[in-house]
Amino acid sequence: MSGTDVCVIIAARNAAETITTAITSALLEPEVAEVVVVDDASTDATEAVARAADDGSGRLVVLRLDVNRGPSFARNMAIRNSRSALISILDADDFILPGRFANLVAGDDWDLVADNIVFVEHASVRDVLAGDIAQFDADPAQLDFAQFIAGNISSRGVQRGELGFLKPVMRREMLERTGLGYDENLRLGEDYALYAGAMLAGARFKFIRSCGYCAVVRPNSLSGQHRTEDLRRLADADLGLLAQPGLATQHQRVLRRHERHVRDKYRLRRFLDLKAADGLAAAAKFAMASPANFLAVVRGVAMDKFDALTGSGSVSPAREPRLRYLMAAENAGART
């Protein structure tokens, strides 16, 4: 294998309806030497459908877990069972646009390199497959740590677009040198935690604004569902990053902002869970347990009520663009 060979890894659970498109899009790329699918204890036909997507080139490997272990475990398993120099993450309900890796893997000025993402409703997938997306200049830039962390703090009433959504190509050598992998305690923000840890370890994160990855927006997507506990674990992951020695002051500040942002989401969700399960008295006890709990709950409940009254908590479907891009870019034009 060469230093530009790519392994695409796909963690899949109950993805029988979408996995064929994901695998096919990866196998069509000439730089892809391996596609490793890990079926994370699906209860549908994901494994069989994935195997049926084999193009006969010998590049597809499908592994099966009998117990659901989460995307971090599945991705680490895929990495262990691959050998290409470059590793690319692909979600099981997304797909790669033609020519993506040719645009990404050139040059040696990166340890992680990502491109723009187009978010598309399931009903518009055919338009993207037909090439009906914007064409942007690459405009390459290096992401710095503070920029990346700040880019993962979402705002109410704004379409989610955190930089943790990025799906970079990563050098295997970088992962081995830093000893990094996906945190198997996380089922939310596992990408964010890995990228942040890599950057703190000195990894260079390059970003280009041309678009090579399509994220399909589905109301029942597993990536859109998470437990209250998942928020707590993600906030704790920030504490782990903050504990690293020699952290620059500006990095400490932005990490604390992100930790508070996620922790407050946890506090509000925990309050609402207790209220639903055990009643208002139990929820109030949690809210009064600390000033931080109280402020997060009061602020969160007030904002939820305000959003419900004004309709400002979400973007109206009538105003949503048919295709949405993670990062704005210049010189856009429809592909022909």
TrEMBL record:
<protein>
    <submittedName>
        <fullName>Succinoglycan biosynthesis protein ExoU</fullName>
        <ecNumber>2.4.-.-</ecNumber>
    </submittedName>
</protein>
<dbReference type="Pfam" id="PF00535">
    <property type="entry name" value="Glycos_transf_2"/>
</dbReference>
<dbReference type="InterPro" id="IPR001173">
    <property type="entry name" value="Glyco_trans_2-like"/>
</dbReference>
<feature type="domain" description="Glycosyltransferase 2-like">
    <location>
        <begin position="7"/>
        <end position="118"/>
    </location>
</feature>
<keyword id="KW-0808">Transferase</keyword>
<keyword id="KW-0328">Glycosyltransferase</keyword>
<dbReference type="InterPro" id="IPR029044">
    <property type="entry name" value="Nucleotide-diphossugar_trans"/>
</dbReference>
<dbReference type="InterPro" id="IPR050834">
    <property type="entry name" value="Glycosyltransf_2"/>
</dbReference>
<dbReference type="GO" id="GO:0016757">
    <property type="term" value="F:glycosyltransferase activity"/>
</dbReference>
